[in-house]
Give the backbone structure.
Amino acid sequence: MLSVQKTRHHTVDVDRVNLFYREAGRRDAPGVLLLHGQPSSSYSFREVISPLAEVARVVAPDLPGFGFTEAPDDYEYTFDAMTRTVDALTRKIGLERFFLYVHDFGAPVAYYLALARPDRVLGLIIQNGNAHEEGLGPDWVANKAYWADPSPENRAKLPEWLNFEGVRHTYVGDIPDRLKPQFPPEGWHLDWERMRRPGLVEIQFRIFADYGRYVARFPEISAYHREHRPPALMLWGRHDPYFEIEEVLAYARELDRLDMHIYDGAHLLLETHHQECAALMREFILNVQAGMDA
């Protein structure tokens, strides 16, 4: 019998933030917290929410500065602040324990939640989310220089990426030509439509600037992996223009319960491999839950 879990869309006030999120599944099912990256929103999970909701309670928020979430003018736009906002959301809606989706700029929020309360984390689903120096290749040299010294001179050396072409590059930049026809163009057009609103480009830069603080916490994350040994599923697009493939092995050294799947895909893997990823995530959730119940 066909069982389709419909996605529900909400906006809730969380500490003065009008936070938009998507939700599906039973409230008593294991939680899954889907955290998107830059320049995306919870829209990037549109194809996997319903399949996952057959085995889990799925929550996918738009982080402050993205999508349909609206924050007050004095919002900090740091990953610490975003973590507090997402944490407040989980408590408001009664999402006590959850699997964390670790991806791109959602990775700092995921790991800050995990570092603060390891007992709330059922497992990690790692999809092109960096947490080690190995993943930051030569293209990050200028970024690191800016984080160390955020001077106008170092900012001028950064590449231009907070524009339409930069958004498009996140989807199809530096990938084989054979893969590009698989990407529907709506994604980067919708992302840019939201980003081009007044003030949003500078907000995006502020978020990028805070990523350096996350990089400085990589040793804490490695210690978390080794101490708490969370079960983990890795779904990796090997044609990622931002994170080096060596990042995969860095995770493998630290997580002894890691199921790894590397695809002929890109940074935004769910745009082209959502069916494969949804099936593996469902199986992972069910297996972890079965182990907890045994």
